[in-house]
Amino acid sequence: LNILDDLFSLISAGKAKTSDGLRLLESYKEEESYIVWNNISQAIGSLSVVIADQEFYSDWERFVLDLFSGIKKSVKWDPVEGESHLDTLLRALVITRLGKAGDQEVRQEAKRRFDLHASGGAKISPDIRSAVYTCVASMGQEDDYNTMLRLHEEEELHEEKERLARSGLAAFSSKPILAKTLELSLSSSVRSQDSVHMISSVAHNRKGRDLTWQFFKDNFVLLKGRYHSGFLLSHLVKSCSENFISEDKAMEVEQYFIEHPLPGSERNVAQSVETIRLNSAWLNRDLMDINNFFKQK
């Protein structure tokens, strides 16, 4: 466990190669512990941001599918009597990662359960509901979006509304659909404190990163007026700007907040710019290394 964390820290600092990390990840294929898979998932999340715009991203998704192929066989969709809390968490994590990476079998089962759930049939177990929404959203179908939107409008439980918003409506792989989600976030259908989390969720979606930054700039006056200089605005500043991966973007973000100052958010802006520069340096350093790793697969 510590080896994985330590190695990825070294990689992001330029003290080890990304291909070393990828080879180490491969060695965990037979692992069954949730704690380990959660660490693997965090490493996958970090690297996914760094290589988000690369042509070999589909190779990366195939790598993730292969990495999870063993644990996929041992994880069941429905709760097993006597299972531990960690087994429950593992199920949701594995389904989410496989669905996002394009596992057709997982996506079809998620869609089957979602359709039943949405039409008043068998309800999706709460512990995998977010995972199912994310799998369905990753297919990017307008009909599914409209169904999720209906469920969101009809839902009275705040927790479920948030689940539909963040794991569903904000997780679609279609840019036109994500643009609708961003518009929805500022509508009367969404409580103002929930808008921030919805926008942030779109920002952390690979297909929503650029859209959300533009949306933030287009709605700057409204957002500043709504949240003043509180925690929510600082959170939004960071999530809308931190996932870029070039020096040009680091300079753009820096300059934008010099021209549009937000008292109380200076630290978040600085953290975002630092993250962009670290990830940009990581990519520039290891781009060929990663590319060659996938070419040899």
> What is the helix content?
over 70%
Task: Please report the distance between the alpha carbons of the first and last residues.
Answer: 25 Å
Strand content: under 5%
Give the biggest beta sheet: none
**Rg on CA atoms, Å:** 20 Å
SSE series: HHHHHHHHHHHHHHHHH
* Tally of individual helices: 17
- Outline: globular
Number of strands: 0
Low-confidence stretches: none
Question: Class by helix and strand content?
Answer: mainly alpha
What is the average per-residue confidence, as pLDDT, rounded to a whole number? 96
Give a written overview of the molecule.
- The radius of gyration is 20 Å and the shape is globular.
- The chain has helices spanning 2-12, 18-26, 34-50, 57-67, 69-74, 85-101, 104-118, 126-137, 142-154, 158-169, 175-185, 192-203, 209-218, 220-227, 231-241, 247-259, 266-295.
- α3 (34-50) runs parallel beside α6, α8 runs parallel beside α10 (158-169) and α9 runs antiparallel to α10 (158-169).
- The longest helix is centred in the last third of the chain and has 30 residues, at 266-295.
- It is mainly α and 297 residues long.
- 35% of the residues are buried.
- The protein is 73% helix and 0% strand.
